[in-house]
Amino acid sequence: MKWTRTLLVYLVLLTGAALTLAPFVLSVMTAFKTPEQFARRSSLSWPDPVTLENFGVLLTGRTEFGRAIVITVLAALLLVAGQLLFSIMAAYAFARMRFPGRDALFWVYLSTLMIPAIVLVIPLYLMMAQLGLRNTFWGLVLPFAFASPYATFLLREYFRGIPQDLVDAARLDGANALDVLVEVVVPLSRPIIATVTLITVVSQWNSFLWPRVITTGNDWRPITVATASLQSQYNGNWTLVMAATTLAVVPLLALFLVFQKQIVRSIAITGFK
């Protein structure tokens, strides 16, 4: 009876894994096909022969997709740096510093997570237009370059779990609040910082609505908007679109492989606490 239950669990897990991975496998398979292969054969058939033609079209400048990749990488780096900097400082203030209304202010700030992102699009657009930042790189990144409520929440909960004795010992040695943050709290919080970094990169890398609204033309569009435009620009050339999605996913997978140990460790520690 026990082995039957175990077999059933594994079958359910394998089914879930297959349903999750199938779209990605199909995307990669299609990316290595020519348009003729895709049109004449089943979409589930393996590419025969394998071709890199679609990737060549994307990266040789004919579609300006390479520019979109560079813009996306630069925007993600700037957003990660800004959000980490301000979120870490805000989380430390909420976790370790005492001031009137600290907890009430934190929960008010956290409640902004309940506001749908689409509600903020028009006000943000009007602000960027008034500042003359429409269809610019700064208009693309500036609204999201500061602290994130979700990142602040994760970091605050982790900071609260750091032993107070370590903080007190640093203060006895003459460290001020900034020294404690930089020399004690941040080094001990590398797992959760890695997790926040990955979450921020993924959310900004996959952002579509705001870049679509604030950018026009090909000058400052990121990889998501560039991929969407390929469908209409090349009359539904799905092999080209799937090659673009493959290029968009590969950096995220590489990032996860680099940070997977820290992510698992931060989840385990946070769950234990």
UniProtKB/TrEMBL annotation:
GO terms for biological process: transmembrane transport. Pfam families: BPD_transp_1 (PF00528). One of its GO terms (cellular component) is plasma membrane. CDD domains: TM_PBP2. SUPFAM superfamilies: MetI-like. It is a multi-pass membrane protein. PANTHER family: ABC TRANSPORTER PERMEASE PROTEIN MG189-RELATED, ABC TRANSPORTER PERMEASE PROTEIN MG189-RELATED-RELATED. Keywords: Cell membrane, Membrane, Transmembrane, Transmembrane helix, Transport. InterPro entries: MetI-like (IPR000515), MetI-like_sf (IPR035906). It is found in: Cell membrane. This is Carbohydrate ABC transporter permease. Residues 69-259 form the ABC transmembrane type-1 domain.
